[in-house]
Structure prediction request, 290 residues.
Amino acid sequence: MSENNIPDSQDSRPSVARPLLNITSAIISALPAVDPRLLAVPVIASVVNEIGAFFDAASIERRLHELEVKLNEQTVSVDRLQERLECLDEHGRYVFRNNLKHLCLTALPETTDTLINSMIAYLMEDAQEMDEEICEIVSACNANDIRFLKRLKHFLEKGERAQQNQKYIEAQQDAAQSHENDSVGGGFFTPTRWQDRNVIYGENTIFWKDFTKFFNMINIDDMGRILNQTAVDRDGNENMEWAYLIRSLLKFQNLGVVQVEFRATMGTISANHVERFHITLFGQRLLKYI
Prediction:
């Protein structure tokens, strides 16, 4: 072999990265509404190359354009996006890639806005572990779940909390009574006074009565019944929507978005007889993207 020839060990080395990271002109021409610079970002290019042959271009283009619009709204340039992607480790790149693939292929249209917001936050903010979980939660949502979250956010902004205020008063009375008991008997005898569990995490605790009253529902004091009985508003109109919203609430309990507390009753006890629920740290983060 002459010294001007490239050694076989280099000549035969496959160029794996180039065909994966460079998107073809055919796909660029099929997605005219998307900035070619965005399509040239390696992670995005690899996903589009992978799914372009199996999914219609119009749907992919629509989802990528949604991503592009959100990036522009949050003043994230393509160069900045690329820079943040390059900072990710292998795990982080797969997280973003998997969520991008889900966005383009399988995400329901009602969930895309929230999913894109959480994907951008995953790249641009420091709470990556939390935002990875949020992306996973959003990927498990359907249209009714997003509708429930929007109602929840609306209540947090405008809702009245009569039941919660009453519970605050009871908590203060219990605390005063406990202090009084501490001084009885000179420390030799302290009478026992049973108290109801009464946990309230400020604005992140929502009482079921306050929540349903705010939306003018009258016959769903026992939440579990609405999975078996149609809800009725104050005008006497049946409202099937609440059966779906309640199912979403129970689903979000399993996803760690809310923590539900239910009433203990004589006889049988239903885990759906909710008195209050708390918006968890994950739920608080998720609501930022709604």
Q: What stands out?
A: Residues 14 and 235 are 71 Å apart (CA to CA). The first helix runs from residue 8 to 11. Strands lie at 205-207, 231-232, 238-239, 258-262, 274-279. The radius of gyration is 27 Å.
